[in-house]
Amino acid sequence: MIAEHALTADEMAKASRHLSVTRDVLVEAVAGLSALQWGFRPNYESWSIAEILEHLALIEGRVHTLIGNMSNAPEAESAGKPSEMDEIILNEVPKRTTKAKAPEPICPQGRWSGEEALQCFLTSRERTMQLLAAPLLRGRVRPHPIFGAWDGYQWLLATGSHTARHTEQIREIKADVNFPGSPSH
């Protein structure tokens, strides 16, 4: 049986900092947006900034459910060090070099305005940070569709990295020549 242990102080500090910083950078990226800017889409296939925030709030809720069910998750196999995957999550997930299509349940549906989506995200992020105290964050795993099995701690790290990835997408939208209020528009 694999040992299911509490997070170390360093692990808790690293994840707490990552979740806080990615939240704060996102909030800064969307500060002061007008309704027109929240809803702007660079093209038909792209999400608006409001839709990105809705997606982020939905993801956080899914991770909350996943963490809440870790007691039913299979035990991690002993191969590899969890810290190696931790670093991949922190360093590779935020990169936008590879695009992925979100599964339907976490695609935005226009549930909220941009400001409402931001508030839902912030409320969810607060809960995400509280989950750092949850039991069974190491030693049990749930599959990620691209990266394989992740333990609960890795899912929490990935939540922050996923936010960083979409904050970069928001910056790309704001840099679009047709973004409302841009110097050329």
The general outline is elongated
- Quote the beta fraction: under 5%
Unreliable runs: none
Q: Mean of the pLDDT scores?
A: 92
Extended strand count:
2
Alpha carbon gyration radius? 17 Å
Q: If you had to describe this structure to a student in words, what would you say it looks like?
A:
The protein has 185 residues and is mainly alpha-helical. Helix content is 54%, strand content 4%. A two-stranded antiparallel ribbon has the order 1-2. A hairpin with a 3-residue loop joins strand 1 and strand 2. Helix 1 packs antiparallel against helix 5 and helix 3 packs antiparallel against helix 6. The chain starts with 8 loop residues before the first helix and ends in a 10-residue tail after the last helix.
Task: Sum up the structure in keywords.
185 residues; 4% strand
Record the SSE blueprint:
Elements: H1 9-30, H2 35-39, H3 49-68, H4 82-92, H5 114-130, E1 141-144, E2 148-151, H6 152-175
Antiparallel strand pairs: 1-2
Helix pairs in contact: 1-5, 1-6, 3-5, 3-6, 4-6
